[in-house]
Amino acid sequence: MAVEIRHEAGGKVLEVMLTGTLAAHDYSRLVPVVGRLVRRHGRIRLLVTMNDFHGWTAGALWEDTRFAARHFGDIDRIAFVGRTKWQRGMATFCRPFTRATVRYFGGTASKAARTWLEAGADTPRRQRGRAVQPERRRSVPLPVFQTRDQTRAFYNKISGVYDLLADRSEAPVRRAGLELLKARAGEKVLEIGFGTGHSLVRLADAVGPHGQVLGLDLSDKMLAVATANVAKAGVGDRVRLRRGDAAHLPYADGALDAAFMSFTLELFDTPEIPAVLSECRRVLRPGGRIVVVGMSKEGGRDPLIAVFEWAHRHFPNFLDCRPIFVQEALEAGGFSISKSLTKRMWIPVEIVLGIKP
Ligand SMILES: C[S@@+](CC[C@H](N)C(=O)[O-])C[C@H]1O[C@@H](n2cnc3c(N)ncnc32)[C@H](O)[C@@H]1O
User: Fold this and answer.
1) Do residues 157 and 291 share a domain?
2) Which of 9, 109, 207, 301 lies most in the core, judged by the most C-beta atoms within 10 Å?
3) Residues 6+ apart with CB under 8 A from 351
C-alpha cells in the first residue's frame, strides 16, 4: 500500500504517508477523505511524509491533476517530510497547489513540520452544524518551467513546422487582434515574438510604404523564416527584424505608435510579465496602443484549461506556455483598457487593447 492517511489537529491537518509507488487507486482513497475534511473545516493543511518513495504511475499523475483541479484552493499549507533526494517528486506533487505555502523538512523533522502546520490554522469553523463552504479565491497562472535558452532552442527546433502545428487554430484570433489594433498608414509598429511572420506581413500592408514595422523574436530560426516570408510578400522594404529578448526592448523611449503580441506574453513567468509590459509602455508614445492576444485563465474551472495546465505541468518542454490573465496584466502594467474581448480557440483567448496614458 503506498498511502496511509491519518487526521490530526481535529481533522484540520491531514497526514499522508507515501511509500513505494503511488498509483491511481491510492488517489481514490485520498480524495473522499480530503473532500469530507474540506466540507467540515473549510481549508485544511497537509503533512506528506515520504518513506522509501519511488514516484507516480502514469495513471496516478492524471489523478493528481484531477485532485488538484478540485482541491487546489482548499489546501493552504503543505509540509513535506522526507529525504532531500525525494524533493523533486515532492515538487511534482505540489505544483498544482499554487495557492498553498509549501515547506520541505528533512527526514527527521516531522515535529517541526507539525508545529508549522498547526500554527495559526486559519480555516473557518463549522457553524451551527452547517458545513462551511471554503473561500473560493481566484486561481493564479502556473509558473513557467523553461529557461530562456530552452525556449530559444524549442522555437528554433519547431520554426519549420510551427505553422503546421498552430496556424490553423491561432490565425483567426490573431487576425481579430490585428483588427483591434487598427495599424494605420505611416505608423511605426512593433511586433514582439513574431514567429513565422504572418502578422508582420499584415502590419506592413496596413502601415504602407511610409510606415515601418519592427519585430523582435528570441529565436534566430524564427527570424530566418519570418525574414523569408516578409520578402516573399514583397514588404521587406518597411520591415526591420532582429533577434532579442522582450524583457529588454532595444528601442528608444516613446519611439512607437503601437505594439502587438500574440501567444507570446504567456511564455513569460508571472513575475516577468510586468517587466515586459513596462518595456512596452516605455517604447510607446503617450496615447500609443498595444494589443495582446493570449491564452486566458478567465474561464474559471473550464476543464480544457485544467487539461492544458496538466500538460504544461508534466510536459513543460513541449507545452511551454500556459493561460494567464491578459487584461489584468495590462492594467497592472499601467495601460488603460480600451477594449477587451474573449474568443474561443479551443481554450479561451483574451484579445485586449490597452492605451499608454
Ligand atoms: C507561440 S509563438 C507565437 C508566434 C506568433 N506571435 C504567432 O502568433 O504565430 C511565440 C514566439 O515568441 C518568441 N519568444 C519567446 N520568448 C521570447 C522572448 N523572451 N522575447 C522575444 N520573443 C520570444 C518565440 O521565439 C516564438 O517565435
Assistant:
1) yes
2) 207
3) 173, 176, 177, 180, 291, 292, 293, 326, 340, 341, 342, 343
Mean pLDDT for the stretch of residues 200-221: 98
The count of structural domains within the chain is 2
Q: Is residue 142 part of a domain?
A: no
Q: Are residues 107 and 153 in the same domain?
A: no
- In eight-state DSSP terms, residue 299 is T
196 C-alpha to center of ligand 1: Å?
A: 9
pLDDT in tens, 32-84: 787 788 777 778 888 888 887 777 777 777 776 667 666 767 787 888 887 76
Strands (E), 74-219: 75-81, 101-105, 188-192, 212-217
Cα distance between residue 207 and residue 262, in whole Å: 19
- Residues paired with residue 44 on neighbouring β-strands, in sequence order: 75
Instruction: List ligand 1's pocket residues with C-beta within 6 A.
Output: 151, 155, 170, 174, 192-195, 216-219, 222, 245-246, 262-264, 267
Domain membership of residue 324 as a residue range:
148-355
Considering the domain boundaries, does residue 132 fall inside one? no
Distance 118 CA to ligand 1 centre (A): 45
- Same domain for 343 and 194: yes
Instruction: Determine the distance separating the centroid of ligand 1 and the alpha carbon of 192, expressed in angstroms.
Output: 7
- Examine residue 86 and state whether it is found in any structural domain, yes or no: yes
Place of cell 505541468: 313
**Rounded (10°) angle between helices 87-94 and 58-71:** 50
Say if residues 257 and 297 touch (Cβ distance below 8 Å): no
The verdict on residue 172 lying in a domain is yes
Phi, psi of 41 (to 5 degrees): -115, -10
- Residue of the CA atom closest to atom 17 of ligand 1: 218
pTM: 0.68
